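Re: [help] complex structure
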Amino acid sequence: MSLEPGGTFDERPRWPTGPPMGPATDTTPTGGLPTGQDGGLPEAAGRRLSGGAWSSGLSVNDFAACLELGMEPVGLVQGYTVMQWSWHFAGAASTMGGYGGGWWRTGSRGQYVEEWRCPHGFVGAEHRVFGVNYEQTWLEDSWATGWGSARDRMVEEAGALGAHGIIGVVDELRPLAGSSTVEFRVSGTAVVVPGAPRPDTPFTTYLAGQRLTKLLEAGFVPVSVAATMASVSMIGYCITAYQMAGTAAGNWSGGMSGGLGGVAPIAQVNRAHLAARHLARERVRRQLGTDLLHGVSLQQSEREIGEGDLTVECMLRGNRVRRFKDFEPLPEPTPVVRLG
Amino acid sequence: MSDPGATDDLGADLGADVGADTLGADPRTPAPTTPSHTARPSVHEGVPAEAGHRLAELEDRPGHKGMFTSDLSVNEFLLVKEVGFHPLGFVMGSSIYHLGIQTRRWSQSQELSKLTEAMYDARQLAMDRMDAEATELGADGVVGVRLDVNYYEWGSDTAEFIALGTAVKAEDGRSYRNKQGKPFTSDLSGQDFWVLMQTGHVPLGLVMGTCVYHIAHRGLGQTLRAAGRNVELPNFTQALYEARELAMTRMQDEANELEASGIVGVRLEEKSHMWGDHTIEFLSLGTAVAKVKSDHTIPPPRTIISLDG
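Output below.
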C-alpha cells in the first residue's frame, strides 16, 4: 500500500472487501428493547430509520475519512437503558460496622474477597476489629446489563438500517432526574461498505476518522467495542480507618504506617484499587478470544460511603480488533511547519 | 411563521415581536406609543430598521465602496475563499419569546407539545430573521451559524433566541441557494465547509428538531418495590428513547423537505432550561447536505511530523 501523494485511488487504505470480517461474538449479557406494543424499536425510531435523508454524528473530517475508506454513513444510531441505581449495597457499611459475618460471600466462585483482622485485641465496642475487601458482583452484573442492553439496542437500530457496522461510538453513564436513577447511553454512526459481505452482527468501534484509517493501515479490522466495570467495596478495619483519617500513629498503626503525619500507603485501599484493575483486565481478556484490544482507556474512581469505607470502580474500554493483513511499514514521514 | 401567542396556557401574549419592536426602534426617533408592525420599515418582518442601515453599508453600490464584516478566523476566511466563496457580512436574527407553562401530570412521562412548539418556533424565527439579513445582502449561504439561548433577569419564563453567522456568496456566479430559494445555513466552521465541499457535497441548511419531555416522578411505592436493587426502569427507558427519536425524526423531516441526501455533524443537546430537572428539551441539530458529485478530491493521506512544539 502506497501513501505517496498522487497515489491512485486504489492504493489508499480501504475497508477490506474480502471475508476476514468475522461475526462480533460477545459474552456480555444481552437484553432486547423494553417491550413496547410490538416489543421492537420505539415507534419514532422505526419511522426515522425507514428512509429519507441519512444522519451522521461524525464530524465533517471524520465523515470525509469515512467516505475515503469506502464507507457510507446510513444513520445515527442510539441505545439507552434507564436503571434504578445504587453504587453500594445500601446500609452495608453502617449496619455491619466492621463486625461482618461472611454475608458478602454471596457471589459466584472466584469472587475476590480479602479479609483483615485487628492486631490490637479487645479495645472497645466502637473498635473496628474486622475489615474486608470484596468484589461487588451484583453491581458489576447490573452495570453489564445496563451497558449491554444500551449497546444491543444501538446495534439493533443499525441492523434495521442494514448496516455493516457502527463507527465513532460514544458511551456514557449519566445520573437522571434524581440521585437514584442513571441512564446508560450508547450512540454511533451506522455505515455500509458497498461491495463487502455483511457480517452477522454489525461491527462496532469507538474509532472514526484518521484513527480508524490508521487502524486499517496497520492491518486490523474492528470487531466490537469492549467495556467492563469492576467494583470492589472496602470496609476498613481499625488501622485502615485510622490511616484514612490521618490519625495513625504509634501503637495504633500496628507498625504498618510511617508514623505521625507521614506519607504512607494504606494497604487495604491499595489492595482494593489493585483488585479492581485486575478484575476489569481479566474480564475484558476473557471476552477477547484470539483478538486484540486497541486504544484502551482505563478510568478508576473511588467513592467514600462512610468513614473508613469506600468503593472502588474500574472502568475499562477499548476496541476489539482482528488482524486481516500483515503490517507494511509506513512511508517516510514529511516534516511540516504549521502556520498556526 | 407561526403565531407565538399560541405558546402558553396563561394567555400571556408576550410574543416574539415584542422584543423585536422594542429593540428595533430607532433611538433617534420617538418610540411608537403602541407596538405596531407598521412602525418598522425593515427588510423583513421582525428585522429591525437598524439592520437595513447596517447591511446597506456593507454593499457595493455606485459612489459607495462596500466592505464585509465576519466572525471567521483568518484560517477560516482563507479556506472559505479557497473553496470559491466570498464573505459578505456578519448576519444575525433574534427573537425574544415568552415560554408559557404547560400543565404536566406528576407521575406521567409525556411530551409537552406546547413547549416543544414554542422552543422550535422561537429558534425558527431567529433563523428566519438571520436568513432575511443574508437575503438582503444577496448571499448564497450562511456559514458558522450559532444558535444561542439567553435568559434575562427582567423576564421570567422569557428567553432570547439568537442566530449568528457569516453570509457568503459564491464567486463563480452560480447560485447555491436551496430548494426553498433561501440562502443555505450551516453550523460548519470554515475548515469543515472546505472539507465538505471537497467530498462532493454542498450544505443545504441547518436542520433541527426538538422535543420537550416531562419525565414522571416515581411514587414512593414504586421506589420501595425496587429498593436495594439495580434494575432497569423500562418505562423511563422507553420515554427518553422516544423523546430523542422524535427530535431526530423531526430534524430528518426538515432535511427531507430540502431534498437532502444526508445530515452531517448531528448533535443531540439536552437542557432543562428553567423547568427543573424533570422537564428536558431534546434538541437535535445538524447540517443537511446534498451530494452533487460522485468523485471527490480529498488529497491522499500522508504521514507528517509537525515541527511545532
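Chain B has one domain: 9-224+231-291.
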